[in-house]
């Protein structure tokens, strides 16, 4: 099956593209995009892989669904295009970076700048129907993104996985913790952050400390 995904990932995921569940998923997504407003736009569904080649992956951040508001989702978890109001979770991510690393709160909510440095910004579900959170869950995306996490875990070493919230932590079952560095905390959404489960996790400085230990280039957050 022909899937429009970056070359560096094609050979890694070829087996998945041939599986029956993936064929069913493609048919479901095509039908949804034809009959409903869905996000992100079709050309951005695999944006996380366009910006971050398999061989460049140093950090993986796992989100849940794409944003389902108008113009928000851009194919990278937690990220929005320039000019779009920052959603609450992204605001809390930037606030944590501010206190953790002393980096000023940025104007741009477009995290492609992270992706280009080797941060895979992976949502567990890559599409969503407008204004209907979770509408494309349990259709096959989760199996596909589990396979991606497994491939990274098996074929690479010393990758930092940032698992924020219960959903991401469950996805972490696919990670070999002996080979990789896994950091967990609450989700940056206000519900979790305001209860004290997010702020102060220092995941951004800890990620760079680990990369330094391994003689890898740190991330300019």
UniProtKB/TrEMBL annotation:
Active site: residue positions: 65 (proton acceptor)
Listed EC numbers: 3.2.2.27
Pfam families on file: UDG (PF03167)
Domain Uracil-DNA glycosylase-like positions: 50-211
Entries under HAMAP family matching the protein: UDG
Family of this protein: Belongs to the uracil-DNA glycosylase (UDG) superfamily. UNG family.
GO cellular component: cytoplasm
Keywords annotated in UniProt: Cytoplasm, DNA damage, DNA repair, Glycosidase, Hydrolase
Function according to Swiss-Prot or TrEMBL: Excises uracil residues from the DNA which can arise as a result of misincorporation of dUMP residues by DNA polymerase or due to deamination of cytosine.
Root EC class: hydrolase
GO MF annotation list: uracil DNA N-glycosylase activity
Catalytic activity: Hydrolyzes single-stranded DNA or mismatched double-stranded DNA and polynucleotides, releasing free uracil
GO-annotated biological processes: base-excision repair, AP site formation via deaminated base removal
Subcellular compartments: Cytoplasm
PANTHER family reported in the protein's UniProt record: URACIL-DNA GLYCOSYLASE (PTHR11264:SF0)
Principal subcellular localisation of the protein: cytoplasm
Organism: Tenacibaculum jejuense
Top-level taxon of origin: Bacteria
UniProt protein name: Uracil-DNA glycosylase
